[in-house]
Description:
By secondary structure, this protein is mainly alpha-helical.
Amino acid sequence: xxxxMHDGVLFHLGPIPVDHLIVxxxxxxxxxGTIAYFATRDMQxxxxxxxxxxxxxxxxxxxxxxxxxxKPHVAKKWAPLLTTFxxxxxxxxxxxxxxxxxxxxGFQPPTSNWNVTMTLALITFFAVWVAGFSEKGLGHFxxxxxxxxxxxxxxxxxxxxxxxxxxxxxxxxxxxxxxxIAFLLFMVPFVVPTAIMGLSLLLGTIQALVFTILSASYIxxxxxxxx
Length: 227
């Protein structure tokens, strides 16, 4: 059954409603998957073209996360997830720069919806636990009473605050940016929105980096020697 754009639901897969944000995410995932496929389907010893660009991204991410984490093997293990975070959030943020994205239903970037940012934050939350148990086993629980058992309530609160902070920070920044662009489009069509498009490109990159770096720092904290 097809619904009008006004309610946000485009169609149903059985009992499951599919809205424009889900479709946008499917498109982004398909785009990333297609690029990865064509970049790796016929790999050469001397990379060129798409393979060369893809390898540059992988090499950069490995070096970048190795600098953020104490243990190189942990950085190498989690770099694929963290790099995927960055690319997905970056493309999600940039999807809001499409013509009419701030005013036409169906073009809002997925990261301007808190359900999407919360899902990404929960993935980070569980990744932190998996990383902690992988490195330290049951010793992972020791950080809840570090540096002494009296810190248990605060450490538990911090554990909850991490995904909440990631959710609100990314959602608030992207949603706020979309509202500003929508307001400017209404007040001064074409002139001011075009001028701030470059700033939006920069902010979209920064927000993707911030989310990724914070996720990496949380993983580094539970796997480091000092934790």
